[in-house]
Please model this.
Amino acid sequence: MRCLYVDLDGTLLGPGGSLLTGADGGFGLDGVRALQACARADVEVVIYSGRRQGSVAEAARLLGQRSYIFELGCGLVLDGELEWLTDGVEPSPELGSIFDQIGASGAPELLLETFAGRLEYHTPWSLGRDVSHLFRGQVDLQEAAAVLVAGGFDWLRLVDNGVLAAHGVAVDGDVFGLEVDRVHAYHLIPAGASKARAVARHMQNRGLSRADCIAVGDSREDMDAADVVGCFWLVRNGLERDPSLAVEVGTRGPRVRVAAEAFGAGVYEAVVTTLAER
Model:
């Protein structure tokens, strides 16, 4: 094992986005222990997150990491060098940021109008982003894809980045006004971008093979890394928040494992289990 790709919110970070909070809301060090185990075994840790670049960069600095993936794989920073993985859609002085270009296209408004009452901006976290338009709600992704294609936006896709609230109980104490049974986080991003693609690009740059790497996360988008790494671990709270993930876990075979523990403890379980088995 030479590299760990790990999500932040709902995975390495506990409730409230704290590295030092365990699944029960009390003080916990399991996430730190996972990082320590990686350091002792000379395993590189790469954050792959839906957060905007500035937020992920700060987290990587605090954790002492040299590389990171932000906005669901839209950008990869490798030893300080930024590479956009957005199929030619890049910031420019004339057109502005990728976020600005997506906004100017009219695609976000189309989705909000089509799914009125089921989709809204995920404020305040939707503000100040580099690439993706961040929403919350509950929509059918195939229906959303058809809407985008019909509107001439086949260069974009809506991505499910996990459940924010279920059965009326909101994660991290947030309250959402949408009348749906599960509130998901959705990102509108360039169609070719993905966490899996960014992971594969980092592996290529580092000369890593599939067998060298594992990934840990809590969402459907995180799980797509199973296509490129040796094993993907789904932390227990991800499956608890979104039981529909069990179907995909079952179809992906041994390359996907479900941790018995949640949040940072699940990351620690994935790391020490992999190191012990290898």
In short: The longest helix spans residues 263-277. Residues 98-190 form one domain. The chain has a mean pLDDT of 93.
